[in-house]
Amino acid sequence: MRIKFVAGNWKMNGNLAANQVLLHALVEGLARVAGVKCAICAPFPYLAQVQQLLSGSGIGWGAQNVSQFDAGAYTGEVSGAMLVDFGCRYAIVGHSERRTLCSETSEIVAQKYAAALKAGLTPILCVGETLEQRDAGDTEAVVAAQLDAVLERSGALSFAHAVIAYEPVWAIGTGKTATPEQAQAVHAFIRAKLAAQDAVIAQNVQVLYGGSVKGSNATQLFGMPDIDGGLIGGASLDANEMLTICRAASAVN
Ligand code: 13P
Prior knowledge:
Blueprint: E1 4-9, H1 16-30, E2 36-41, H2 47-54, E3 60-63, H3 80-85, E4 90-93, H4 96-101, H5 106-118, E5 122-127, H6 131-135, H7 139-154, E6 163-166, H8 180-195, H9 199-204, E7 206-210, H10 218-222, E8 229-232, H11 239-252
Parallel strand pairs: 1-2, 1-8, 2-3, 3-4, 4-5, 5-6, 6-7, 7-8
Bound molecules: 1,3-dihydroxyacetonephosphate.
1,3-dihydroxyacetonephosphate (13P) binds at residues 9, 95, 167, 172-173, 210-213, 231-235.
């Protein structure tokens, strides 16, 4: 059975003082929540702080991006090996904000996914369609193409060491959550697509939902058969919200 996984994506938010309060509250609160895996994906400069405050807590941590390159003259980039140096277990790759704002193509995302795996990290691969693409009936084609780029480079077996996050772009930061049925349909599509290559991998891979997940809608979303948890943006900055979401995940396990 797939265990539920809730990962916070802080995006470009936080500061040393606020992070400390938030992390302490999470460590304290999650100590009493069983049966759910949790992680925080923090901005690069705070990874040392996150490592210090989460070590030994059972909460994992990771980055929101990783370079596709190993080392060298790539000003401003951060390699997978550097993330491992700070105890990271995860790296988000292909978040829609990076695909859009930083022009990351599916090919670049596939390179980053491969680089994360090579460094020993678990990539959290984000896929998802825009509202225009959904309205045009292209959701499955868009998600399939995003997955294909990774499948072609790294193969289906690589998903034994990866997590997928379905994040419809129109639901991110908008307060408009996909309905549990809308999300479930795409999650089932993702799993079926992987199953066409490897049934066991497809059965075991965690597929998270992301996009305006809150304490108030988590239970319904996580109750769907192919939704294995969430990638949480805004609500992950609020300890009470994050704890409510993690409790919801624990309760449906
Ligand atoms: P929100 O939860 O703020 O909608 O963000 C979702 C997201 O992008 C997580 O990666």
